[in-house]
Amino acid sequence: MEFGWIANPHYLGYLWEGFINTMILVAVAGSLGFVLAVLLALARVSGPRPLALLSHGFTTVIRGTPLLVQLFFFYDGIGRMLVEFPGLRDSFMWPILREAFFYGALAFTISVGAYASEVLRGAMLSVPKGELEAARAFGMSRFKILYRIWLPHAIQICLPTLTGELILLLKSVPLVSTIAVMDLLKAANIVRDETFLVYEPLLLIAGIYIALTLLLTIGMRGVERNFPGVRPASGVRTIPGT
Amino acid sequence: MQAYGQESVLDWTGPLLAGALVTLEIALAAYAIGLLLGLLGATAKLSGWGPLRGAATGYTTLVRAVPELLLIILLYYAGTQALNDLLQWLGMTGQVEISGFVAAIGVLAFVQGAYMTEVLRGAIVAIPKGHIEAADAYGMSRWLRFRRIVVPEMLPNALPGLANLWLILVKDTALVSVVGFEELFFTAQQAAASTRSYFVFYAAAGALYLVMTLGSNTLFAWAERRVRRGQPDT
Q: What is the pTM of this model?
């Protein structure tokens, strides 16, 4: 085992860049994917029939195909079509649409949206009907019911599962190295190509991922514990605002 | 890969379907071996011997905390090396060349086994203790007890998890294309690069995966109805 290369600023730079890109991808795809998941779940639970069917079909296709294939579909399949799209190359969007990073973020956002929407849908359906009826009786608008009552309670129900989805997202980030985005795996590949060390760089980033998974798990457990309305282990109900 | 001549998209139908077949083959083989590893892992986790439990816990924790793609690349290189080292240590000379097919199956099965361990352990724990004791009281041997009591009673608990793992496995097979193994997605990449019809071939590959996953959904639904026969509706 030879780990001397870690001290080399050349490789350290790649590793750092890969780490930062990984964090950005998780943050962007995690948050945008969650918004997409809410929309998809809402369309299925209370949308008009065509919209519900569309949402169902979309999640089925995304959940039924490998993320790697989706990544190449967006990057090579759609990305290359955009190149030929008249005028796009000169538009302000081009610097973004040119980057492989954008397609990685897009594919991950869609994937998170599809998987999390399935989780959210189940949770939304298991919120007691009486709560929604009570909210309606209070004269709340549909939107207000959604963000004050329905969604918070649904998230409370499925938060541990959503944590699992977030960890799955983190673990799928190395896929972007296949479309030439600088992530930790890509950095490790560069080290491997230049130093002919096969295991050391891979083992290093495996260690980084284990640490990140652990940190994310602990962090999300903190969020779960402090989520309004979740009963702490002692059985005392926390009331928000007290 | 052909460098010259205009290939038609349809020329690739045969290779794509052949790739899909290879994908199904490695998925089935990895699933079977993974199931075996999972049974061993679950037995180890439920055993009374500390070191065995610790080894099984280490296996599942590590595999589940490291990204699949990274594991596959690591195992692909390390597995070959380890096997050669082992043979050298046993006094055999020369290098063994592991076929990509075997390596792909081994790597996927190793990952799958860790997740199987968790699913099977949970399903076995959920069997009422009294049933196991009753089997012992009847004087059943361990094997008979396993075959007649443990397996039929754990299957209804385990099947949803097992179905889920199969779907994950089918999708994970695409990852072995990264180490150059020729399955469905690798073939699709070659086809796309050679004809420059990226959109068509990635969509086609996606559609083939979708057929496999949706088809397995139907099979698993049937299997679940079957193992749950005789159980009260819940």
A: 0.86
